[in-house]
Amino acid sequence: MPEKLKNLPGFRDFYPETCAERNYLFAKWRAIASRYGFLEYEGPVLEPTELYTRKSGEEITQQLFCFEDKGERDVSLRPELTPTLARMAAARQRDYKKPLRWFSIGPFFRYEKPQKGRGREFYQFNADILGEPSPAADAELIALSIDLMLSLGFTREDFVLRLSDRHTWDRFIAENAMDPERSQEFLAIIDKWEREHTDATAKKLEGFGTTVDAIQSFMDAPHAISDNLKEVQADLEARGLADYAEVDLAVVRGLAYYTGTVYEVFDIAKSMRAVAGGGRYDGLLKLIGGAEMPATGFAMGDVVITDLIKETAQAERQLSDYLSTYGALDVYVIIADEAHRTDALGAVQKLRASGCRVDYPLAPMKVAKQFQAAEHMKARATVLFGEEYPELKIKDLAKREEQTVSESQLPAAVRDIVQSDEIGPMLA
Amino acid sequence: MPEKLKNLPGFRDFYPETCAERNYLFAKWRAIASRYGFLEYEGPVLEPTELYTRKSGEEITQQLFCFEDKGERDVSLRPELTPTLARMAAARQRDYKKPLRWFSIGPFFRYEKPQKGRGREFYQFNADILGEPSPAADAELIALSIDLMLSLGFTREDFVLRLSDRHTWDRFIAENAMDPERSQEFLAIIDKWEREHTDATAKKLEGFGTTVDAIQSFMDAPHAISDNLKEVQADLEARGLADYAEVDLAVVRGLAYYTGTVYEVFDIAKSMRAVAGGGRYDGLLKLIGGAEMPATGFAMGDVVITDLIKETAQAERQLSDYLSTYGALDVYVIIADEAHRTDALGAVQKLRASGCRVDYPLAPMKVAKQFQAAEHMKARATVLFGEEYPELKIKDLAKREEQTVSESQLPAAVRDIVQSDEIGPMLA
């Protein structure tokens, strides 16, 4: 017998019960993006590798899922969407009214050693505003990210949004006469500020003309809150969302293209874990597509947030509620007498044509087994085709009530039962 | 200035207006799958190349988007979902009640010269029934594929489902004492039957011990309709769908794993174009995952069907109706007096919290421009924050009616306007 085939390391199979959890998250992402007036777009899963190396340099290829295609092109499975968006928006900047509010949901990839919370593929939600330079656009995306967390059932006890500004660090770098070429290297040290031992940080800072203490004082100083961040805070205050955000300059975000406001949503219980983040990248459209357009964006992956949902009681309860009716049938058609299979098939098709979700036994099966199947598939009702045909027994499985109807009365009788629920089935 | 970056040949950018068309198709795929009681699943976009070569041999790698990853694995961007499904279902066959009804929607890839209707990536809908050997399962999927076409606005004038049976050809191959090893090669000739010149077909048939005439007579003979196909036809008849299907043995489907019933949905106007197809593949789960499980499936890609929708008046009208309210806002908040921006932001956030889709100007803008933006974004209503604050003017943009409300009355007033529409905004 041939060896059983398996999936690749770091890649996931979404069986229906896992796909349901994914779809819950997708539905929330879509619902919030829609409330904020964002339109969906999508780019290719595969892009020229240069799209990612142009800003960040060749080192980034270490984590890229990159390879040479049959046409000898250097290509990469996309690690993120921002460079694609920059390319797309720059190419057709004149076709759209500014500001653009665009969102996307899709698969992303990286080539790293798979570990808990980090596989080789993941889904990501991206929301971006293009064409608006003011902090109002950053605040709008920050509000969106807070609303997203709230809609998933999280509270201020569970998360905080840490707000920072790359401009503030640019000023620090200039004031300390550091080599601007090495600013990315310096910011990488700040990025690890809380996760790394002070001695290690101090050692890395040698050669940058500054110290751990100097940086700590700079971050704690009141003037560290830039006018830009003050505007963001005032905007959030007007929305009643100010409490969800805290200025914390230790957040700088790893990506080289950020230019202004940056932020990360952290979970409080395991405070080192960022579940989402974003920021302003005003230079990227020019670099990639030759168009001058300010831009700011936000992204959330599916892996950490799904873990967090399952660890947080209220969020988990909300997910369970969704799953309890997910993929539920309206009617299961029971064929108690095979002589009436043909009649039953006709009814199945009519019920479906009226919009009902219907299943039935493909092969002859004992009636008790069919009722079990109906329960298993969360059917709201059963219709029984038996010896009494053309009389049909219709049963409300929630209320345990039964009535007898004719075939012509069937669709209306089913509709009455299904609509008597406040919560209908949801297959997102 | 650096060169502008482009996407790879054969890959598509989905700008919002194209993504809307894609989402229309996705929504129809989901709705029909749901009516048929199917549950969604998904597999990895990247798989070991052997998953595709095990049944079909190494020749298939010519069209595969395959490469060697950094770990020196032979991997492929998936060209189809059936082998992944076979792997997944076989691995967990004991965890699910049979029959399984599973569907999926996702991206697929092939490495071919890009041409009209065939890029290097496409989306595909897959629906499969696993664990049921009877023709009833094939008929259920055939009914699903017909219902899908009807739900897209097509009629019997626009499409026909051509039904065939691999068993019938197996019998022909045996009766003509052909080498069973060469049956795939022989079926490839039948697959091109209608597209290729008779002389070319005749030449290819040399060495198979048969002729064009012999094959034509075989296909036309009444006994060519197998008992299996008769059962499928009777089942469709019971559903009132028999007229949509015609037996046509020239349909064999290219893939090596099919074992019984096979079919393709053809558009009638350009009759050489298949828009969808499927069939039974009873041996694949054993070959790939070591599990004995009968299986039958159906797939439709996004490219040809989208072309066909746009070429067919009724189907195109239905798409246009969907697009006319796609991504529409409920309310655009107009800030006529910047002194009230803070108040307006508070209202924006309250309206969103009540479930409304809301946009507003991120930067100061002339009032006339703001009304234009509201129309452009298909807003159902506007709310104006001006000198009259705390009085607010709310305007129904469809009925051109205006009223004055207080802030506390605002959410209810907006709800009244939005719910007065029969057709609400749809962001699928």
Provide a quick synopsis of the model.
Chain A has 15 helices and 16 strands. Chain A is α+β, with helices and mostly antiparallel strands.
Description:
Two copies of one chain form a homodimer. The first copy, chain A, is α+β, with helices and mostly antiparallel strands. The first copy, chain A, folds into two domains: 16-322, Bira Bifunctional Protein, Domain 2 (BirA Bifunctional Protein, domain 2), CATH 3.30.930; 329-418, 3-Layer(aba) Sandwich (Rossmann fold), CATH 3.40.50. In chain A, 38% of the residues lie in helices and 20% in strands. Chain A has 15 helices and 16 strands. The first copy, chain A, has an eight-stranded mixed beta sheet with strand order 1-5-6-11-10-9-7-8. A five-stranded mixed beta sheet of chain A has the order 13-12-14-15-16, sandwiched between helices. In chain A, strands 2-4-3 form a three-stranded antiparallel beta sheet, covered by helices on one side. In chain A, helix 1 packs antiparallel against helix 4 (135-151), helix 4 packs across helix 9 (227-239) and helix 11 packs across helix 12 (313-325). The two termini of chain A are 40 Å apart. Mean pLDDT of chain A is 93; it is low at 423-428. The interface between A and B is large, with 99 and 99 residues.
Write the layout of secondary structure elements.
The structure is a homodimer of 428-residue chains.
Chain A: H1 16-35, E1 39-40, E2 46-48, H2 50-56, E3 65-68, E4 74-77, H3 82-91, E5 100-109, E6 121-130, H4 135-151, E7 159-165, H5 166-175, H6 183-191, H7 198-205, H8 212-220, H9 227-239, E8 245-247, E9 261-267, E10 274-280, H10 284-289, E11 295-301, H11 303-311, H12 313-325, E12 331-335, H13 341-353, E13 358-359, H14 367-376, E14 381-385, E15 392-396, E16 401-405, H15 410-419
Parallel strand pairs in A: 1-5, 7-8, 12-13, 12-14
Antiparallel strand pairs in A: 2-4, 3-4, 5-6, 6-11, 7-9, 9-10, 10-11, 14-15, 15-16
